Amino acid sequence: MPKMKTHSGAKKRFKLTGSGKLKRQQANRRHYLEHKSSRLKRRLASDQLVTKADEKRIKRMLGI
User: Fold this and answer.
1) Where is this region: Disordered (predicted)?
2) Considering only Cβ atoms within 10 Å of each terminal Cβ, which end of the chain, N or C, has fewer?
3) SS3 state at 22
4) Quick one: 14 exposed, middle or buried, by C-beta within 10 A (0-12, 13-18, 19+)?
């Protein structure tokens, strides 16, 4: 049986925390920042945890 390959798109987007949860960045922080409020940009700057529904699928993509 061949080894499972890590999904290269997923490994760039998700990080594993010390307790085994998955961390991700939020969308809408890349461009057109002039017309977005500072309040919105600050809120989008913080990392979020991946939802429980998606966690199993992403972990499988990462080979965890």
Assistant:
1) 1-40
2) N
3) strand
4) buried
* Domain limits for position 39: 8-62
Q: pLDDT per residue over 3-62, tens digit each?
A: 999 999 999 999 999 999 999 999 999 999 999 999 999 999 999 999 999 999 999 999
User: What's the CATH code of the domain at 21?
Assistant: 4.10.410.60
Residues 47 and 13: their CA atoms lie apart, in Å, by 11
Q: Which residues pair with 24 in a beta bridge?
A: 14, 48
Per-residue burial over 24-58, b = 16 or more CB atoms within 10 Å of its CB, e = otherwise: eeeeeeeeeeeeeeeeeeeebeeeeebeeeebeeb
Residue 21 forms part of a structural domain? yes
Please tell me the pTM assigned to this model.
0.83
Question: What are the tokens at 57?
Answer: 């699928």
